Amino acid sequence: MKLSALQRGSSRVDGSGNRRGVLTAWTIWIMLASGVVVGCLFNIIWMSAVRNDARNCSASAALAAGQSYLSDDILRSWQQTFEYDGRVARCQNAAISIVEFYRKQNSLPPITAEHVQIQWPETEVAVKDPSNLVPTKISVGFDHDDKSSQIPLFFSGLTGVSNAKLGVCSTVILEHAPAAFQPGPGNTVPMLPFAITDQASVNPGSLKPVSSGHWTSNIESGKGRDCFSWNNETRLFENGPDGLPEVTVTIYSGATTIADDAFVPLSFCAANAGQASGRIPEWIDRGLSEADVKSLGMERVSFPSSLPTALLALPQQSTTVAALQKKIGEPCIICLCTANRADASTSFTVGTVSLKRPVAARLVQVTTTVKGNVKVTLQPCVLVTSTAITANDTPIASNRYVYSVRLCN
């Protein structure tokens, strides 16, 4: 039986309508799936950029925290609990300030003091007072599980995920057992070309020491006078004690002298004594360079090792004094050394000295005496330098003065 024309037309309309419905459903599903894929890809790219910013931010914050903890006050013999708490708070505030600076330009969440984790040494034999302990590691991170360490995502209605953890953390280690100093291209070691003879000198024919070392006696044994205090805000010394004793050393004119208080001129090159004397003001100004170390036939200045001494000629004394006066208030590395002396004389022919260990100090005063000698007053300080190298294979005693703050991840 044949269908009428009306029935055939109705059948065609019904079939095309079903097909259009299926196509519409598939189109909607494809658009939704595409939206989810695009949203996920956009969020992945977004999270990658934010995590990169977070890594840079946390690394800068950790470095700032480590350097802020290290200050001259950790050298004081007697400290109160509030001083220890103040260092911790200063360390945390430095990290928070860096993060707040980054947040002005990036979409990073804020951090609190809880995000700054300080790790202390497991054992400390030499120091019983916890306030004198130096952290081994400081971590700053956006890795907490709470919402403060999460960032909002886009297209949460499509992807079903509204927030994501950053999971970023940076850690610095605080090293203070320098075995050597190594300058690099454009990066000099802030070391003065002078050394202090810190050794137990012995009278001829006697084994009884007559000195325990000028630096050790005045600074580390606390026998030095405490007449000046360093103001970190004004960057000037003020009259009055601050708990850090000073030591006065002498540059003897016309000869290299190994007296208890001698400030022995060093040569940072392999030139003869006269040529080295003319370069002392230059070395005072810029420190120890890579070219200097290479001229000595070394890759680095290690402890122990030997360096040649120099004669400070009278014509160069005024320029040397001027260069030292420009360094007043600036932290510098100074080597403690030993020198062999066969007789009771305090002078010896220019040669070498054996470097024992580095210390750090600020120059307080530089004056010339009526005899033509130069008196230099030093106050111990804390110095942070990237040129310090810590030996991992050889145990080195902890250094109270010289530190390096390095990222370890």
Commentary on this structure:
This protein has about 400 residues and is of the alpha+beta class. The chain is built from seven helices and 19 strands. The strands form five sheets. Strands 7, 10, 11, 13, 14, 15 and 16 form a seven-stranded mixed β-sheet that branches. The longest helix is centred in the first third of the chain and has 65 residues, at about 5-70. It is elongated. It starts with a helix and ends with a strand. About 30% of the residues are buried.
Average residue pLDDT: 80
Report how far the terminal alpha carbons are from each other: 85 Å
- H/E topology pattern: HHEEEHEEEEHEEEEHHEEHEEEEEE
How many individual β-strands? 19
Runs in which pLDDT lies below 50 for 5 or more consecutive residues are 200-211, 342-350
Provide the helix percentage.
25-40%
Largest sheet: 7 strands, mixed
Shape field: elongated
> Which structural class should the secondary elements be placed in?
alpha+beta
From the alpha carbons, calculate the radius of gyration and give it in angstroms: 33 Å
So how many helices? 7
What proportion of the residues form beta strands (DSSP E)?
15-25%
Oligomer: single chain
